[in-house]
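User: I'm putting together notes for a lab meeting next week and I want to include a structural view of one of the chains we've been expressing. I don't have a solved structure, so I'd like a prediction I can at least talk through. The sequence is below, exactly as it appears in our construct file.
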Amino acid sequence: LFQHRQAMANVPPPSSRSADETEADAAVLYVDHAGHPAPLGLCYHATASRFLSSSIDDRSSPSTLTEIDSAYCPQCLAFHDAATASGSELRGRCPKGGCRLCPLCGAVCGVAILPEEDGDGTKHAIVYQCGYCQWTSNSCSVSAPVSVGEGGSVSKEDAAGATEALARALADRTEAVSGDANSVFAKLVAGWGERSRDEERRKRQPEESATSRRGVSAAGEGWGIDTLEEAIAEKKKDWLDVRQVIDGIALTKLGPKEDVVAEVTPRADGGGPRPTPAQASAQNAISPAIVSSISDLLPLPVPLRARKSRRCRRELAEGRTGILVKPKVNPLEGDSSLRSGHGQWWKKDSSAVHSVPRVSVLRHGTATAAGSRKLHALLLSVRNPTLNSVRIRLGPSSTPTGREGWVDPDELDDVLVDGIDGRRVSARWIGGNDDGCGGGGGEGDNGPSLPRPTETAELESVQDAFLEMGRGRGGASPEEVESWDAASVLAGNRDEIPFLRLIAAKEDKAWIELVVAEEGEGGSGSDTLAGASHVAASLSLMIEVGEGSWESSLVKRQPPEKEGEVDTVNFDLVVLW
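Assistant: Thanks for the context. Below is the predicted structure for the 577-residue chain, given as structure tokens.
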């Protein structure tokens, strides 16, 4: 992946690239039902649904929600259910003694057998050792003896026993460091719990009347200075004098102008480096004790990783389960090391990349017309990812920009265009108004401002590129695609701009030409996005349903309103370049 990204960073001129190689600075985003544009790899298509959902969670009103099903350790791959992983015993950490992180750099620690010199000669001990910064647990006095045979060999039984002994030594060291602090905390909890129960019992006493609780005596006497002073003194006695409540542990109440000064215990070594704030705070996961020296840092348990399921909010609102992704509990399930279930990593996976045709920008170019008007020409490709044939068209967006349910122009200020490397860009809608297609046509018409839909292209089932190469067929693109050049297209005399045109269709792919106009530097959100690095246009991917088209989606065909019409599922697109 790294080599691929580096190769795409130095993109050669369009004439020297393959016809199927996409532009590195262009992207096509799919709009979910909440109006958030997202890459196809982050979109989901629920079974028999006519809209998309996405995993974009950093915007208001996300289209999906997540639930934690289980958790696993990335080091030993042991897994636990959600209740056990988040319980007080594990607290989101792996309980195994061999799964530890370096307290200095955070890398995974291994176990190593090191020689130790003492009065009886050379002995060996097993310790935690970081392979990155070479830290060892000898610095925090955590080790365990191990028997080493001739030639420095250690049997498997001795190694396993020594590892368990090392884990027990770490547990004893942690208990010795945090024992006092845990005792104080437990006494605090018990003391305040007892006071809470006493308060509940006091409230349930029937002999105390409402008037006495308000400070009014039974004789009808109201508040007085003496009564007020007695009440304040009683509260101070109840809530500030807690020395006897928590078994002799004194608490100090600081005023607003007092400073908290932490008393640091002098170090036995008389000096040495102190831990950084991040290293000291990381120790709170295992011990509440104050860390004042590097020798106080203990190996950290490996945090568990959550396995999440994702549901569609719109499906849930309509009374359906809406499950989009459901992982398996065992993280190894689906691995080739098991006897069965190879490649079956999920109980359910409704990722849109498996069912929705992928639209990509292959090439694009820009030319300046009269005045400040710019013309943009793009070559788009549409590929069928399913094992059934699909009939598609591209046309104007079903919900143009600026209308309810469409993309907020401000969302394009920092929009995610690559779900793998997290690349984000800023973009503005093309054109001088809010339709995103370079014109000002009326709502719902197909006038000069909106491109007419393309002809219908039938895409065959997906072709395995490696299988085709093995059969001696390289899958070359049609001549119209190989010879397509943006400058030649923009040089021609076009009376109707913007426009869409189907260039060619072959097997599981179709190629479509898009030409749009940009009227100056204006556009939707131009005040805040004047310095945007990209421009954007809106389109709609129209997929026919029924009569052998897109049967894998399980979408039920609806009867047409007029004779001769076909039922289509429309997915709104945002094209960035």
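A couple of points you could mention at the meeting. DSSP finds ten helices and 25 strands in the chain. The mean pLDDT is 79.

User: Perfect, that's what I needed.
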